[in-house]
């Protein structure tokens, strides 16, 4: 996610930024999916990933500012 966010910030135009930030959101959502899979499969204890999953969910749920 971080590399995609960096690329978005270096976008040459507003449309390019918005496209790339959309990829960041998709990557955050995919990360949540895999972290949840790890906990549901019993490979990692949920309390170890709870904060990370919560933060990633916040990123996915956060709307983009309308000024973009």
Description:
By secondary structure, the chain is an all-alpha fold. The protein has one domain: de novo design (two linked rop proteins) (Up-down Bundle). 75% of the residues lie in helices and 0% in strands. The protein is built from 3 helices and no strands. It is elongated, with a radius of gyration of 14 Å. It starts with a helix and ends in a 7-residue tail after the last helix. The mean pLDDT is 87.
Give the helices and strands, then pairings.
Blueprint: H1 2-9, H2 14-40, H3 46-61
Helix pairs in contact: 1-2, 2-3
What attributes characterize this protein structure?
mainly alpha, 68 residues, single chain, de novo design (two linked rop proteins)
Largest sheet: none
How would you describe the oligomerization state of the chains in this entry?
A: single chain
Strand segment tally: 0
What is the name of the CATH superfamily?
A: 23S rRNA-intervening sequence
Estimate percent helicity: over 70%
What is the domain tally? 1
Order of helices and strands: HHH
Calculate the mean pLDDT score and round it: 87
Which outline best applies? Answer: elongated
- Structural class by helix and strand composition: mainly alpha
How many distinct helices? 3
CATH class: Mainly Alpha
As for the CATH topology, it is de novo design (two linked rop proteins)
Give the CATH architecture.
Up-down Bundle
**In angstroms, what is the radius of gyration?**
14 Å
Q: Percent of residues in beta strands?
A: under 5%
């Amino acid at each position: 996610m971080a590399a995609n966010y960096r690329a978005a910030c270096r976008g040459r135009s507003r449309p390019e930024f918005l496209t790339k930030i959309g990829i960041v959101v998709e990557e955050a959502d995919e990360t949540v999916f895999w972290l949840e899979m790890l906990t549901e499969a019993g490979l990692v204890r949920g309390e170890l990933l709870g904060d990370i999953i919560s933060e990633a969910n916040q990123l996915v749920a956060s709307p983009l500012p309308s000024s973009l």
